[in-house]
Design goal:
The protein has 833 residues and is of the alpha+beta class. The protein folds into three domains: 94 residues, Alpha-Beta Plaits (2-Layer Sandwich); 138 residues, Alpha-Beta Plaits, CATH 3.30.70; 375 residues, no CATH class. 59% of the residues lie in helices and 7% in strands. It has 26 helices and twelve strands. Strand 10 and strand 11 form a beta hairpin. Helix 12 packs across helix 25. Its main location: membrane. It is a multi-pass membrane protein. It is found in: Membrane. Belongs to the V-ATPase 116 kDa subunit family. GO terms for molecular function: ATPase binding; proton-transporting ATPase activity, rotational mechanism.
Length: 833
């Protein structure tokens, strides 16, 4: 948990790597995933960097892998999952072998695909010819009455036939959707002198290139004259109609059909053998393709990273800069030594920690439990370097505040079951790749859902609410002191607490409130006060957390100039209001005989707070006191005056302190600051990062050394106004805890009374069937409205309370995330895309 308290300490390092060991060293660093490299070639074009050729080589390998993967998916072959055995980045010899293998496989696949397209085209043409020959049987008579001539006869015979007045014909196949336009065009060019007969093919043909079904129609066009024949052929070409030779003799057509069928059978056999060969090749490749894809991605990432390095003057060493968590420095040094040893380099690579004034990235080390809560915080803004991390406390406060709004034992149990299922089966569920964005959100927050459900069950027990019903676990502390006649003759009876109650219910709400007419009034008062108490405690905790930041960054003056007036303003006004709530609960008792201490004389805390702020008085009822204790009016005035004095304290304290410290430190800079820490005094050692060294200088100035005083006054005025107004608005904002809790309870009660209770009132066989249907509807509405919609609403409101009301008291969120070079992150990111 020490890692969660604040971000880890980072070091800016400079590494020197021999060129022959650069690839393997960066590969080892990618496996560790704890180094964020800086680009030392910002001014160099991406196409002019040292390893751009290797990157293009990787791009070409990726293109080949994508092509082969597409072909594999076409055949419906399932690629194996290798999440448990991820290969390492390939060495140079493996790269050459992989490149040759992919080149061979791609060439073979392209050749097979081209041959397949050619054979399918031939198969399609022969199929169309067979269809033409078979369908034109009905277009001609067996006796050849008209002595028709085919369009494929010799030119002299055609001229003779046309001269004798005989009809010629053209046969072919055309897409079905073009038939009507084709027929209309033939009628226009021939002025009605073309006789067209057509027949639709029942079975669709397959496109050789795409494999999509094509619906076609066989046609025969009869005409007279050579000129008309040429026109018809041009129209067929324009409509992409395929023309085929068709003999006019019946015997010749029968012979041609037999030949075509024989050729089709032979071609079908060849196609089948080609498909089998293709399937065998793809099945063999599919076993290794996922590994190849990962290896190429890693190789490309390595060369992209090497492009961030700079070559030294002698061209014998690669120099890189990177951010490394100080805890991982030994890991990085070991990775560099392993990389050098892998290639047998005689000169070892080494790592130097260098000093810098640049702000390091923020790195919070998380596990599968804390990652979800850290993501909630990072969504608001990444913490500044070494700033106090709210995620540690959000692990408890977030599910608790959610549960205050979602307090129901039954609904909380549903969340617990759902969250526990995702937690217990997380290894299996983590393999789901196509679950969608919503599923990824739910699965990523599985521990949040589990904790929200557990806390909702706890608050459900406190509210004594299970699907809008109460449980009598310990026996009610209220009793009925009326006789039977009085109970039966009166629609409602009052139970005074001084005579009808004994003690206090051991845990949570007494179940008798479920029957009371003033149930909502009582619960409203209780939950409203509870929300204010939790809200003020939450905000006080947030203000106190700022002391942790001030102490760590050595801004000790800010403790007096910012924290003290802020905490005084909050406690003397709203902390006092919370105190009065508890004082009212303890001071007024129904069993006392002293009238000013009876519940009827208890003043309203809200009215008392308003009168306190306005210095007003409200006359109490007869026999009652206006205040709860004697010195209360003087104490309230003192608190208000001190709170008002805190406003100029916050407004002017920090700017005046900056002004005076600037004058005193104008000529007090030491030699190290003037020369950028180049010269070190005797006995001094360089810090891992110079950013920590600046924290003392920012003790009261908060980094405003170069800012004009006018802007400092303006900024401080804005912050003061924001804090004063937000203290009031944020306290009122916590009333959403009461509002959503009330809405959730009322919706649950409405669903019970308006839906499920109707089925429970039915009787007989029809009642059982009706209860079964109504129970299903009640379950559906409970899950859809109360668990899903109300749960999402409570989640968003809880998120707002943490982002705005809690974190604004101490959290800056002005940092940038640590993004290490990690193969795991690269592969996971590509899977999500």
């Amino acid at each position: 948990m020490g890692d969660m308290f604040r971000s880890e300490e980072m070091a800016l390092c400079q590494m020197f790597i021999q060129p022959e060991a650069a690839y393997t060293s960066v590969s080892e660093l990618g496996e560790t995933g704890c180094v964020q490299f800086r680009d030392l070639n910002v001014n160099v074009n991406a196409f002019q960097r040292k390893f751009v050729t290797e990157v293009r080589r990787c791009d070409e390998l990726e293109r080949k892998i994508r092509y082969i993967e597409t072909e594999i998916k076409k055949d419906g072959i399932v690629l194996p999952d290798i999440q448990d055995d991820i290969p390492r980045a390939p060495n140079p010899r493996e790269i050459i072998d992989l490149e040759a293998h992919l080149e061979k496989t791609e060439s073979e696949m392209i050749e097979l695909a081209q041959n397949e397209v050619n054979m399918k085209s031939n198969y399609l043409e022969l199929t169309e010819l067979r269809k033409v020959l078979e369908n034109t049987q009905g277009f001609f008579s067996d006796q050849e009455v008209l002595n028709l001539d085919s369009s494929n006869r010799a030119g002299g015979d055609e001229a003779t036939a046309q001269h004798r007045g005989r009809l010629g014909f053209v046969a072919g196949v055309i897409n079905r959707e073009r038939v009507f336009a084709f027929e209309r065009m033939l009628w226009r060019i021939s002025r009605g002198n073309v006789f067209l007969k057509r027949s639709d093919l029942d079975e669709p043909l397959n496109d050789p290139a795409t494999g999509h079904p094509i619906y076609k129609t066989v046609f025969v066009a009869f005409f007279q004259g050579e000129q008309l024949k040429n026109r018809i052929k041009k129209v067929c070409t324009g409509f992409h109609a395929s023309l085929y030779p068709c003999p006019s003799s019946h015997n010749e057509r029968e012979e041609m059909v037999r030949n075509v069928r024989t050729r089709l059978e032979d071609l079908k056999l060849v196609l089948s053998q080609t498909e089998d060969h293709r399937s065998r090749v793809l099945a063999t490749v599919s076993k290794n393709l996922p590994s190849w894809s990962i290896m190429v991605k890693k190789m490309k990432a390595i060369y992209h990273t090497l492009n961030l390095f700079n070559m030294d003057v002698t061209k014998k060493c690669l120099i890189g800069e990177c951010w490394v968590p100080t805890k991982d420095l030994p890991v990085v040094q070991k990775a560099l030594s392993d990389g050098s040893a892998a290639v047998g380099s005689t000169i070892p690579s080494f790592l130097n920690v260098i000093d810098t004034n640049e702000q390091p990235p923020t790195f919070n080390r998380t596990n599968k439990f804390t990652r979800g809560f850290q993501n909630l915080i990072d969504a608001y803004g990444v913490a500044s370097y070494r700033e106090c991390n709210p995620a540690l406390y959000t692990c408890i406060t977030f599910p608790f505040l959610f549960a205050v709004m979602f307090g129901d034992l039954g609904h909380g149990l549903i969340l617990v079951l759902f969250g526990a299922w995702m937690v217990l089966c997380e290894r299996k569920l983590a393999r789901i790749r196509n679950g969608g964005e919503i599923w990824n959100i739910f699965f990523g927050g599985r521990y949040i859902i589990l904790l929200m459900g557990l806390f909702a069950m706890y608050t459900g027990l406190v509210y004594n609410d299970v699907f809008s019903k109460s449980m009598n676990l310990f026996g009610s502390r209220w009793f009925n002191n009326y006789n039977t006649t009085t109970v039966l003759t009166n629609p409602s009876l009052q139970l005074p607490p001084n005579s009808s109650a004994i003690g206090v219910y051991p845990f949570g709400m007494d179940p008798v409130w479920q029957l009371a007419d003033n149930k909502i009034i009582f619960l409203n008062s209780f939950k409203m006060k509870l929300s204010i108490i939790f809200g003020v405690l939450h905000m006080v905790f947030g203000v106190c957390m700022s002391v942790v930041n001030f102490t760590h960054f050595k801004r000790y003056a800010s403790i007096f100039l910012e924290f003290v007036p802020q905490i005084l303003f909050l406690l003397l006004l709203f902390g006092y209001m919370v105190f009065m709530m508890f004082f009212k609960w303890f001071s007024y008792n129904a069993r006392t005989s002293f009238q000013p201490e009876t519940p009827g004389c208890a003043p309203s805390v809200l009215i008392m707070f308003i009168n306190m702020m306005l210095f007003k008085n409200t006359p109490p009822p007869k026999g009652c006191n206006e205040f709860m204790f004697e010195s209360q009016p003087q104490l309230q005035k003192t608190f208000v005056l001190i709170a008002l004095c805190c406003i100029p304290w916050m407004l002017l304290g920090k700017p005046l302190y900056i002004k005076f410290t600037r004058k005193n430190n104008a000529h007090a800079k030491h030699n190290g600051q003037l020369t950028g820490n180049i010269e070190l005094a005797e006995g001094e050692t360089p810090l891992p990062t110079g950013f920590s060294g600046n924290e003392e200088n920012a003790g009261g100035a908060h980094g405003h050394e170069d800012e004009p005083m006018s802007e400092i006054y303006i900024h401080q005025a804005i912050h003061t106004i924001e804090y004063v107004l937000s203290t009031i608005s944020h306290t009122a904002s916590y009333l959403r805890l009461w509002a959503l809790s009330l809405a959730h309870a009322q919706l649950s009660e409405v669903l019970w009374q308006m839906v499920l209770s109707l089925g429970l009132k039915m009787s007989g066989v029809g009642g059982a069937i009706g209860l079964f249907i109504i129970f299903g509807a009640w379950c559906l509405f409970t899950l859809a409205i109360l668990v899903l919609m109300e749960g999402l609403s409570a989640f968003l409101h809880t998120l707002r309370l943490h982002w705005v009301e809690f974190m604004s008291k101490f959290y800056e969120g002005m940092g940038y995330a640590f993004q290490p070079f990690s193969f795991k992150a690269i592969l996971d990111g590509e899977e999500e895309e």
